[in-house]
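Folds abound. Consider this:
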Amino acid sequence: VQLVESGGGLVQAGGTLKLSCSAPGFSFDDYTISWFRQAPGKEREGVSCISSRYNSTYYADSVKGRFTISRDNAKSTAYLIMNSLQVDDTAVYYCAADRLGNPGRWRQYNSNPRSYEYWGQGTQVTVSS
């Protein structure tokens, strides 16, 4: 199974990008989906998470109020809308799928990249000042 991210690019600070994570032919609605990011020289960090159903969500403090996660199970696609982008948001963004967790278990389980079964290849987001 391969998750496919798209929507990254170069944007000025204050701008907006919408990332997509698609999984054709995958039992998408059985999986919690999270977005992680990794900047050069830094560890991969969790950004946001959405439950398989009922749209329960989690956001890291650094993006709360600026980013919105959503999903359309009929299209097997998850989204991350990133508003008011800052230079510090520059990173490769990855989506990941996990069958056992949910946003309520973020600290104990879903914050750990090793909890995830499937990953996308990543999409670069660059925010210029």
